[in-house]
Amino acid sequence: MAAYIIRRLLYTIPIVFGVLLLTFILFTVVGGDISFEIAGKNATPETIREIREEYGFNKPLFLAWDSQFVRHFKDALTFNFGRALDREPVLDKIKRGVIPSLSLTVPIFFGEVVISVAIALFVAFLRGTVWDIVAVVLCVAGMSIPYLSFILFGQYFLAYKWGFFPVFFSPELSIPQYVALPVIIGIVTGLGSNVRFYRTVMLDEMRADYVRTAFAKGLDARRVLFRHVLKNAMIPILTTIVLAIPFLFLGSLLLERFFGIPGIGYLMVEAIGARDYFVINAMTYISAILFVIFNLITDICYALVDPRISLG
Amino acid sequence: MLTRGFHLADNTQTEFKPPKGVSLWQDGFRRLFRRPIAVICFAVIIFYFALAAFIYLAEIFHWQIGFTLWSQATGPSYQPPCRENIFGTDIFGFSVFRRMLYGAKTSITVALCASIISIGIGVPLGAVAGYFRGIVDEIIVWAYSTLSSIPYILLIMAFAVVLHDKTIAGFKLSGITSVYLAIGLTSWVDLCRLIRGETIKHKEREYILAAQSYGCTNSRIIFKHLLPNVFHIVIIIFSLQFVSFIHAEIILSFLGLGEADKPSWGAMINDARIELARGVWWQMVAATVAVFVISLALNVFGDALRDSLDPKLRVR
Amino acid sequence: MRTRHVLLFIASFLAFIPVGCKRSSPQNANEMVLHHVIYTKIKTLDPLSLRDVYGATIMFQIGEPLYQYHFLKRPYVLVPLLAEDMPQISEDRCTYTVKIKKGVRFQDDACFKIGKGRELKADDFVYALKRIANVKNVSENWSVFDNRIVGLNEFREYTKTCKTAAEIDYSRPVEGLYAADDYTLVIKLTKPWPQIIGSAMADQVFMPVAKEAVDYYGKDIVAHPVGTGPFKLKVWQRASYIELVRNPNFRGETYPTEGEPGDKEAGYLDDAGKPIPFADKVTWTIIEEYQPAWLLFMQGKLDISAVPKDNYSEVFSGPGVLTEEMKQRNIRLETFDEPSVFWIGFNMDDPVLGKNKPLRQAISHAIDRQKFIDLFFNGRDKIAHGIIHPMMAGYDPNIVNKGFAAYDPNEARELLKQAEQIQGGPIPELKVANPGTDTTSRQMGQFINMQLEDIGLKVEILYMDWPTFQEKINTASEQMFFYGGFASIPDAMDFLDMFYSKNKPPGSNKFSYNNPEFDRIFDQASVMLDSPQRTELYRKMEMLVLEDCPAAFLNHRVNYVLHYNWYKNYKPNVFNYGVSKYLRVDLKERAEYDKLLKSRKD
Amino acid sequence: MPEIDTLLSVENLSTHFFTQQGVVRAVQDVSFSVKKSRTFAVVGESGCGKSITALSIMRLVPEPQGKIVAGKINFGGRNLLDLSKKRMRAIRGNRIAMIFQEPMTSLNPVFTVGYQIEEAIRLHQHKSKSDARDLAIQALQQVRISDPKQRIKEYPHQMSGGMRQRVMIAMAISCKPELLIADEPTTALDVTIQAQILDLLDQLQKQSQMSVLLITHNLGIVAERAQDVAVMYASRIAELSDCKSLFDNPLHPYTQGLLKSLPRLGFTGKRLYTIPGIVPEPLRFPAGCKFHPRCPVGCNDKRCQTVEPQLRSLDNGRAVACWFAPGYERPDNPK
Q1: Which of A18, B75, C117, C439 has the most CB atoms in a 10 Å sphere around its CB?
Q2: Which residue from A minimizes the CA distance to B149?
């Protein structure tokens, strides 16, 4: 087990390198010199020069000990992301965003998984019946409505018109209060694709031969479904679940933007508006790291659920 | 003494082989177009494409055809839906309906270009990686696992932000160009992975071995023999990705990274955000309906396509 | 079932959800709090680089400059704040000697010995200015002092020679900037600068800075302002919320006892002579969307709010007339001119536009300003017929008749014909830089596009985020651009220097406008005190500019502000941000409003 | 021959699949009967409906497309098709057990072998966990799996194909069924293992006096193991007979064809006979006798092309469905 984990960790090194390379090419080579963005209004040539000096935009890109590439690496590996355009340390920004984001995404996520797996099981149980068809149709329909529309209508009617929820984040609200509506919307929007996915997983399993065997044994449908099928279906379901976790830290771009939740999603939107490469770069890198880690965790979970796979 | 016995060709499945002379493909499509729903969806999709194409032509040849002239006041500012403006008008009194139609052009263009880019990258890379294996494979796999280790939306945004209004090699990536570049350059991964896997499977098949044995060049084998046999995957992925691309365009133009001064569904929804306050809901509805119909058609059609071409393929 | 472990493991993430909220100190009933909203995030609370209006609205409650514009008196007059009195000005009007109030103390802060705020010294001003001059600090405020104060530019040069910020020696003498003694600040100017008091000494650039604070907080000084003002920073949640609390060290100041005629009747003098500040707390909720802010206001959670253009019909039954609903809610309307002008600028160095005056005029005449204002400002703004704002000396009442801003498509077409002759062929597609990618900016862009296409001119609107826009205009790399100016003093100079050739980009002259005649008059006028002659020169300059038409001037902003009746002493003051100290809340009235809302609910 | 009472009798069973392409008549009025403690073989090419017949008996036809549209399945005096789902479950795996073709996939990968065997035992015999375990171990011993105590803890993927099939059998016999349906039990295994498995089945049958319904496409196996045979062609029974007389004197041209094409020991030289043409697609069954296009006898016969011959029992206890079969048309037979 340990050996396996170590091996996997080694395997992640090139990935991390790749991510760093990508972010570098994106934000430094293509993105280029943003000293004007940093300087802000009424910049004078010498302030620009100063900034170039400070941020090392005047340094060579590659092939030098003090090249921007090397610097990029040093900073990333030491998690030193410097200050954003508004002079606040990037890490502070991100730290500040984590709690609101998670308090938004975690409930959405679990609500979604629980509900959609439940529905999927139910639908798989009634496959071929009217209910099944209705469910599938609803799913596809749900998937086809643009996310933004969901949010807008939800905000407009549930909050603005009928006042069930606060329309917008405001400091004196408690987290549960301002998160409630976004969470509901989030769950609803996600339901379509999730149910559909889990349903396919279930049905694939139900076509398997061992199910026929189980029935031939004289087991009743419920037992077959919940004992035999579900445990097999857990495998793909688990992978998707665990792999989704790093995304939770990212928060939800649109929901946070619309409801003004000061999370990481909002942070990203701002960063885009302000061309704040420092923030975007840091976020990209961090989330990639998270993803890699959780990828590893997924494989371990895999081994835990599926006897066919043994780590070693 | 018959112990050795003899075997009739046997596989006990209830699905039936197509009659002679019909390729797996033709058969797939035959089965596909036996489904009325699939046909309807296909018609809808065709309609959208035709619409987009028509608007293009109208623009190039300056045809003065009503519904292509979106920037022409057809009523007072913010006129609610009525007989002459089914979906009402926007702030300048432009017909929202026309804007909606025009939006089809924007979205289709983005989605189409993005698809072309992602296929153009994904398929060759996938095939090459799967066919040659070894170091080439290593590199390509590394490339896409790197990309896929960055959350998709973040990746798209990063690309879009960086490319937005950049001038690269004297070519200005204005509005929509940067959008489909961003989408295309980031979303070839799944396709590449699938194609690679499929290629590896096929590589050991007799017909490839045969082709090698009578000395075909690798490129010929890949493009003449391999790709045709894995191409159904491309089609399926294409139809399914197309939807997500359309939705991505909406989100990007909501973030202000998209088409700016021409109508697009994303922009319309974005406008609606503020205008809802004055009770102007029709922009919103129009755009939503437009997106909904095409997405629905594509989703259903994509599923049908998968069911009839490659039921085992599982794409999320 | 092994799966459970995994699920448990995932479930442990739920631990991240904090219950309840960690909001600042709870409100108690008889604590007087001012609830404000602010529509954008604050970058910095360090006078060093603080430039934007929003930053100022906060910073001026915490720190104080030497002078301020009187809270009530109109026309605006300058009165001492940290200064003991108005400065003594030498004969040549180049040397200013300012006496500073004694016994003024900085707010208590960890950066001082035993956390007690020390007394304010003249050196703190010297230090503040030197900080701005220090090139390593890349201050956005340097342009204010460039070539103004004797020896300061040399100091800047010196800082350039230093490798690191650490080795810069602030004790290095500057000829034109020193403390004669602890309470006397002396400033020598390179040439007379009549506006110095208004545009510098009453501006954040002249807020004293305690060296201890800068040394103590380093780069984080941006979030730890240490001032002498009536309030001090308590909470700053960058994304969402700012809270100031009363500064116990604040020297005794009292509410003004005189104002302009009519103030008494309006009740602005009810609190005359009372010690200020009244409020125990000032809070700003940062909300970047108008709608939610508006809703908070309607719930009485904000004392004051702007009128979002999309809620206009809710608020007004007629132009400037509040609806019954508003009246019932006891909401009052304040309308006031903002000393601002907005325009579409032309880059005079551009090969097409620069040499082609008819073209520029054509564009100017092609724009229906009234429609523009109706569409985007509910018709409340004023058409900008010239540059100088009506509230300022130098405004020419009958400039309207000169018709520079007249909407006249036909004439525009005529001019366009001439323009094409000059161009020697059709005018190529013009590019217009538009800051902002949001809906409204896009609609404005489309509007201009329509208007120009109407006279047969092809334009492409380039929508860009603010930083990109900054870069483009600071490098004069756009043909046309949406822009606007906001005077910080009631003196047309603030507008006119945007056309001074020495201020070319990245300076304030974004047009790269260059007219020797103008420059000559400018040099002449810039050193003059307010006088009929100077006003005359101002008008001359304006005419020159309007003739050359380096921009199509669109509108002067007119502000509509709503506030509840309980929000007392609110008198719009566009040149003085440090007004929270004068404001008072009638807690009884507010309580009643809450009752009103409740009664409506059920 | 001595009359032996029948355990299972299938009468005019028809099972159809309702697919998007149309109705697939997978089984068309099939009738046969399985006698106590004897082996009845159903033989035929792929897609001829033999597996579906088996599934129909178990009432495991894949829903919802698949449906038993007509017929009776009498077992132990009751018609299985009339039983409630619950009653049917009580019979499945208990009185009628079934083993499948694919030992690789027919076992649930995520449960131990032991668990899967016990499951049936506990269900039908209401034994405690420990008793069930002992029975499971016994069952494994019966199918000659070495060291069952260990094996019982293993997962299917840790076993070879032969092993898994033995496990399947153990599972099937664990409840001492009266009828064991073996659907192509050996197809997926290699020849040596096949023999072992089949021998095993024989012995088990002898021990516990159970009847076996053997579904196969392998005439060799039929000849060796079965007492009665039904030859199916295109979802109908072409010929029904006791094993010996079938091989001695096949009545249906199809059977004849099959036998002709059998390689026999000491047979050298000439090419093997093959039946011309291909098996018809179920959606495109030819009119009349489904075999007539390939039939050496009736390919040009008007009646074969138009009227489909029903299965008729002849006086010698055999039954056949062919106009030209000797004795098929006797004046007393109704037209």
Answers
A1: C117
A2: A288
